[in-house]
Structures
1.
Amino acid sequence: MTVRSGVRTDVGRARGRNEDAYLVRDPLFAVADGMGGHRGGNVASKVALEAMRGFDGTDTDSASALVQDIRTANETVLARGEADRDLRGMGTTITAVLVQGEHATIAHVGDSRAYRLRDGELEQLTEDHTLVHQLVEEGRITADQAGHHPQRSILTRAVGVEPSVDVDESTIELRSGDRLLLCTDGLTGMLSDEAIRDVLASEEDPQGASDRLVEAANAAGGDDNITVVVIDVLDVSAHPEEARLVGDARTGPPPASQPAPVRQPRRWRRAAILTAALVIAVLAAGWFGVRAYANGQWYVGISNGHVAIYHGIPVRVLGLRLSHVAATTDLPAAGAEQLEPWAGIHDGITAASFAAAQAIVDQIRADLASAGGG
Ligand code: MG
């Protein structure tokens, strides 16, 4: 496996400092987009990727090792945030790719993205962990509305915010000639996938492509920090990493010559998963299984006429509730139901965590304020 890469990060034209970070350490590549008040965002992205720097990719199961590495970064960022009042609440996205032989492992949290360009076609390999993406998945807003939504950067998952983090992981097959792109939302917020594709398909040099993408994002406004890493897969049949690994303890055979099994990126369809998980839970573990499953879930619903956060799932089984109110708010449910994105609140809007549910409540509050003000 031979790769060639280019990288560029830029503060953009609207921000005072660059809170993005990147890691280019073949075979590991990553981008991170930090967030948090004061200097928090700046520290979070750098600390997270610094924590991943020790990763050497020599594990036999490098995919789970990469996920574990992001979990370690999560703990490191959280600990730094708890130790320093100025940094409290900081967090970061991480999108990382490990290229090995004829496949690449992608591990991802947040709204930075990975893409693959193959034969002139651009394919997004990651799913945004944003509130607007969740609303699109649930059919509450259209993809077009999501693209222009004022709160499109609200994350439903981030690194360094909670003691544990759910990391998306997928493995893709690689061919010679493939080009991978890692980028922060400062690129994708400014350029359409088509515009990104045009640059990647027309500029042969990976550094040149990185430079041109950043310049195009700035020309389109440069509203946010922009970071891009472009990785060209030159030859999947060459295996120089066998010799390159420091202190190589590897005794297994070289990567197999037949294509590696391909796992598609996860497509979370909440309603389907909820239903499937319920059925499985009922069959496999009965009532206690359902209760245990419900204990890991959250949603935003209505309690006594007000918007509230529930712990559990918004269904009844045999007439029994599987949730309880975890937090109440002063937001009138009737007002929220008048707003298009929140019309379904009486059914419950599911969330992956309490923080994600809180983000939904914050969004409802902002929407109610702007509806009342306008
Ligand atoms: Mg950003």
2.
Amino acid sequence: MTETGKKQGRVFSGARPTGRQHLGNYLGAIKNYVALQDEYKDTIYSIVDIHALTTVETTQNLKQNTYEMALDWLAAGLRPDESIIFIQSHVPEVMELHTFFSMVTPLGKLTDLPTFKEKIRQQPHNVNYGLVGYPVLMAADIALYKAVLVPVGIDQAPHIEFTREVVRSFNYRYKTDVLVEPQMKATQVPKVLGIDGVSKMSKSLNNHIELAATPEETQKRVMQMVTDPQRARRSDPGNPDVCNVFTMHKIFSSAEEVEMINTECRRAGIGCVDCKKIFARNLNDNLAPFRERRAAWAQNPDQVWDVLNDGGKRAKVIAEQTIAEVKEAIGLP
Ligand code: ADP
């Protein structure tokens, strides 16, 4: 504990600059980024632009996407005076650690990862070397800051486990303890489903709800949400236990409303249209302060870039120190 009552040890997380963030990003990861600022002394959040170069679509509009994402993070409640918020490529030391890590990483382990197999399916014509090394670079991101905790969605669990293994291999190979094995930190909703009610919410599947959308756009998306598939007619009783809208109500609606929907849906007392209208209203109410803060930051883009540039400088100080220790541990002359 520190004098402020916060825990020692660093928190780190990163995400590729994919532009405007969606509810899945928020409920699966960003919510914890914000909350951990009050629990830990050091919180470090990175927009990992080098990772973005592994896929063609995320290579486009890097600057705009970085800016939009930073706006969303700040609007969600990241505080630049407390957290280091920075762009990965501003701290090139991560690429050095990536190279050192690559020497203690069996290739088979990388090609066996479910996330890699999924990428091969998604982009069979662009199975580049960087894609194979993606988890190695991610391990370097985390280890460079000696993070003890990594807030991410459940889809990242294999990568965090992989990071732990790489750190262990490195420390074992060089008989050192300079690097730290991190733990994953999931939210209460570690996998948020898209409006299709089936797949993980994701921009690439276009099943997402953007945090920064207008109330009207948000309402439109909510009305497209798939509910209990067994409930074909308004007069059929529904099952909230299998309904993604109900899952969302539990996060954004009052206890009374959740109770009412739970009861009324089961006896066809409320239809899906009305249920979704209530959710849309509550979601918009919840997002109103976020939208206000976002608009305030957007008044002054230079300030957003200042936050990122300043964060890069602060991150670099830590990174240089770690790299010096790593080189010493390896025994490089
Ligand atoms: P990246 O591939 O760089 O991690 P994403 O936008 O896919 O970028 O994810 C950013 C963060 O949001 C990650 O921590 C990820 O686990 C989390 N996340 C993304 N989509 C979801 C979702 N549908 N449910 C829960 N968490 C999610």
